[in-house]
Design goal:
Distance between the termini: 101 Å
Number of helices: 17
Helix content: 40-55%
Largest sheet: 6 strands, mixed
CATH topology of the largest domain: Beta-Lactamase
CATH architecture of the largest domain: 2-Layer Sandwich
Structural class: alpha+beta
Number of domains: 5
CATH class of the largest domain: Alpha Beta
Radius of gyration: 47 Å
Length: about 500
């Protein structure tokens, strides 16, 4: 191993490497003096390099930075601080900070600076800016080079955003805590459903469920234990599926109040929300819908009562008609007998239409059900059933449309039995429909087509049935009806709006 170089050889090498290194003659009298000069020169060179690198670092850190000497004079100011203060650093270097910013007297910033200078303990704090009024700073003060080093950043906008966020959260919390029949909560996401944690729950939890929010926060299962047993498995299955597939779910159930024991209806609506970092939280809303359920039940009872009374009214009208016509006795002619039968048949058709709507609580009906009731009497015979074809997509129709179509189909079937395709053994009927979309919205176009019956010719006069089909349906449903008596059979086209 080679011995370490002597200070003299190091000096010679340094002189060869750097021609601008000059050692005064007065210091060449001894080896010791040359060593001191070498060390001092190397120290100054290292310090200069460190100072240059430090200056580069302080200029590039992004945060504003300045340093003060022990006399509170500016000893360094980086470019970011210079821009922030709006004053050239040349005008500030060497001056006392308190002279440059006289308004700092009595401020928190000055008190903190003096504390660090006295104790030598670094500190960080947030405060109003002194040099730029109306701004807010995040400041870090620490001992530096015999004085203080100060780095700071303006976070006025962030602070305003945080204040606004806190105020917004406070408003939302206040709203959530005071909604009378609703509870708001938030749960974090987890791979295992059982590992999820409750992040927030509104104070309305106690009013809604009878258990304080703090207790539920610690043990979420307290709420599940209040759900009636017949709903628990379905609720668990829905929630597990929702967590696995990150999809919302909505269900209604009954649960017992934790304090009063009263059983009430609730609705649970839970929605996943993806955060900026890709993770999920679940926003939940539990609503007491007991009053709504009771109103639904009351409405259902009223509708059932109304249906019952309408059917009784129709039965009364039928009885009145039968009694009135029966008094004619043997004097009744064929025309009166036909009128009585037609009247009763139309009452029965109207009653069948009411039956379909009654089953649906008068909220509407499936077109297939309307057709099935209208065709029931004519498809009872197996042979006749094969002669009636029905084609078209099933859809929901409104109550007025269901009644109008019931009466129209009754008239068409009656006419087919008397004069058309069902008056012989070979005729056929095809009922088809489609739902095209026009500029005015979706429409129902239904076509009744008879084939194979006796030759058809237009009637000499327009009877009640024809008027009911053409005028009644068009008037009731704001549509258009075309009734054609073609030689091969009657064709009726109905074009009505679905909305």
């Amino acid at each position: 191993m080679n011995p370490p170089p002597s200070p003299l050889s190091t000096l010679d090498s340094l002189q060869e490497f750097s021609g601008d290194l000059v050692i005064p003659n007065a210091h060449r009298n001894s080896q010791g003096s040359m060593e001191e000069v070498l060390l001092q020169t190397m120290d100054r060179s290292v310090q200069a390099r460190i100072g240059a690198r430090l200056s580069e670092l302080l200029e590039g850190i992004g945060d504003a930075f300045y340093s003060l000497d022990r006399e509170w004079r500016f000893s360094y100011i980086n470019r970011a601080a210079e821009v922030y203060f709006g004053t050239g650093r040349g005008e500030m270097l060497g001056r006392m900070i308190w002279d440059v910013f006289p308004s700092s007297v009595g401020t928190e910033l000055r008190r903190r600076y003096e504390e660090v200078a006295a104790t030598g303990i670094a500190t960080s704090f947030e405060t109003d800016a002194v040099g730029v009024p109306g701004r807010f700073l995040e400041v870090h003060v620490f001992p530096y080079n015999g004085g203080l080093g100060i780095s700071f950043r303006d976070w006025t906008e962030r602070r305003r955003a945080e204040i606004e966020l806190r105020e917004s959260q406070a408003r939302l919390t206040s709203l959530a805590d005071n909604v009378p029949a609703c509870m708001v909560y938030q749960i974090d996401d987890a791979a295992d459903y059982r590992d999820r944690k409750l992040l927030y729950i509104s104070k309305t939890c106690e009013r809604l469920n009878g258990i304080p929010a703090e207790e539920v926060q610690a043990n979420l299962s307290l709420l599940y234990e209040l759900v009636l047993p017949q709903y628990r498995d379905r609720m668990l299955a829905k929630e597990v599926e929702a967590v696995r597939e990150h999809k919302a779910f909505d269900m209604e159930f009954e649960m017992r109040h934790g304090r009063t024991g009263e059983v009430r209806w609730h609705r649970l609506v839970v929605t996943p929300r993806q955060l900026a970092n890709g993770s999920y939280v679940w926003d939940g809303l539990q609503i007491d819908i007991t009053d709504h359920k009771r109103a639904e039940e009351h409405l259902r009872l009223l509708v059932n009562e109304l249906n019952h009374r309408v059917k009784n009214t129709l039965a009364t009208v039928q009885s009145l008609a039968a009694q009135s016509f029966s008094r004619l006795g043997s004097h009744v002619d064929d025309d009166l007998r036909a009128a009585r039968n037609a009247f009763e048949a139309r009452l029965f058709a109207l009653a069948r239409g009411h039956d379909v709507l009654t089953r649906e609580n008068w909220e509407g009906a499936n077109l297939s059900d309307v057709l099935a009731e209208a065709c029931a009497a004519h498809r009872a015979n197996a042979t006749e059933c094969m002669r009636i074809a029905i084609e078209g997509p099933d859809l929901r129709v409104s109550p007025p449309m269901a009644l109008s179509l019931s009466m129209t189909l009754h008239e068409l079937f009656t006419n087919a039995h008397k004069y058309g395709a069902l008056s012989n053994s070979s005729g056929q009927i095809r009922i088809s429909w489609s739902t095209p979309t026009a500029s005015s919205g979706q429409r129902l176009i239904m076509r009744w087509e008879e084939r194979g019956g006796p030759p058809v010719k237009p009637p000499a006069r327009k009877g009640f049935g024809s008027r009911l089909i053409q005028d009644g349906l068009a008037r009731e449903l704001n549509g258009v009806v075309h009734l054609h008596y073609e030689p091969t059979g009657v064709v009726c086209t109905m074009d009505v709006p679905l909305s």
